[in-house]
What does this fold into?
Amino acid sequence: MNRVIVIGAGPSGLSAAITIAENGNEVLILDEYMLAGGRLLGQLYEEENGKWWNGIKESKSLHDKAVALGIEIRLGTPVSNIEKLDGSWVIYTDEETHYTQHLLLATGAAEVPLPIPGWTLPGVMSVGAAQVMTNVHRVKPGNRGVIIGVNVLSSAIAMELKLADIDVACITLPKMNQVTKESGNPMDVMNSLLHVSHMAPSAFVKFGSKLMKNEFMKKMGITFFPKKGVKMWDIPIMLRKAVINIYGENAVEGVTIATINASGEVIEGTEENISADFVCIAGGLYPLAELAAVAGCPFYYIEELGGYVPLHNKRMETVLDGLYVAGNITGVEGAKVAISQGVTAGLAIANNLSGGKQEVEINEAIKRIEHTRDNAFIQFHPAVKEGKEKLQRYWEEYGQEVKVGVTS
Amino acid sequence: MIICRCEEVTYGELKNTAETYNCSARELKLRTRAGMGYCGGRTCRSMVDSIAHASTERDVTQVTLKYQPPIRPVSFGSLGEITK
Ligand SMILES: Cc1cc2nc3c(=O)[nH]c(=O)nc-3n(C[C@H](O)[C@H](O)[C@H](O)COP(=O)(O)OP(=O)(O)OC[C@H]3O[C@@H](n4cnc5c(N)ncnc54)[C@H](O)[C@@H]3O)c2cc1C
Ligand code: FES
It folds into this structure.
């Protein structure tokens, strides 16, 4: 029963499984989706070096490599619960129950919804759903869309919709309420975008053309953002407008937008309608850590990482024996970071199985995560490194407390 | 405006309850049933959490709205371990 189980066939789970198999161990991957690749599947953009990052191709190459190594991948298999019983991890799926000593959770991230009046109408979807429909299933989510929420993810996906010849009327903010406090505040949004633009390499900016860099950033820097927005790939990005209502009889017919002041309050009498047959909500991402929670991992809320993350060390080990985490479950970042975390978790598992043969490699792999992070093309939070440092401190404190607990 | 689709709990109801009782996310859930529907809070959890934390401090050391197994829908058949 030395077979390792990995939950999640995204870039982190696949890379971990490959690493574990390359070190001579058997692996089973479980994933609820019908394709391997996770959120990597929908990704499509040009990197600074002019090369295209095509998620479908990257996923296929990871998948093929895994299959060639004899890794079993079971798709369409949601895991509904895990628990530790008599020293083994028990993994419950609809069909079967699996057992293992070493379990890796690589379940990725999920999207945060933003409630806006009318958001339950058919035709309203998360921006990630529009990405998957367009890039993975090759189905148009509609002919003309409005994207609500201005951030790295929504601008990347707007460009992808544009590539698929789908009209995006505008990217704008949600009307402010207790849920949309930050995503509805123009100053907060502008600051977070400016942060991203200062990063080298400036992810947000470099998604666009070379031209945009100067023009867009100049315009971003000013306090009085033009009401009509600034254009990126011909799509107006409007930080001084907010969607106050999504309307339609039986499905989306359009949105009502209004001008907002610099702190996000609606200026009355400025309402206007924009017709659209679909609406994307882009509220950001959070680590999808449900299974770590039901397993009993301690959690910490770290805003820079996207929300609650299960406590783990640099080797991707949680405090629970035989339970590991990798990828976006440990904090929201790009696919390349997820891959390097997967390799590290894979090595940590192989090392624990072999009695310590991979020590040197693990240390190198940990360094490679840092390096990948420093050179990341896409970064979801400007202070992700600080977030990781906070987590490391929590890990050390937790270790101290446990020791005190044992001796006292 | 609906926040919890499964239990049809509105933003107004959640906001009023949070303000009246100055309650934790868990208490807000128990008082309104938001998050207790058939999706298990997968759709509304983060919004219920945000509304509660508009009036209370966040405890950074534990998940405020607990996850309960099963975290994905399970058919009655497999719950009862009935095999065809
Ligand atoms: C909508 C969206 C768009 C994104 N766009 C980009 C982008 O353009 N560029 C970029 O670099 N990053 C993007 N990301 C970030 C993305 O999460 C990472 O790039 C990367 O895919 C993370 O890899 P992962 O292996 O951690 O998780 P994922 O790729 O998310 O894979 C997790 C896998 O786990 C499976 N899973 C989860 N829970 C269960 C369960 N209970 N049972 C069985 N299977 C389960 C899922 O089906 C999924 O296949 C995006 C994320 C999202 C959510
Ligand atoms: S939307 Fe609230 S429980 Fe389903």
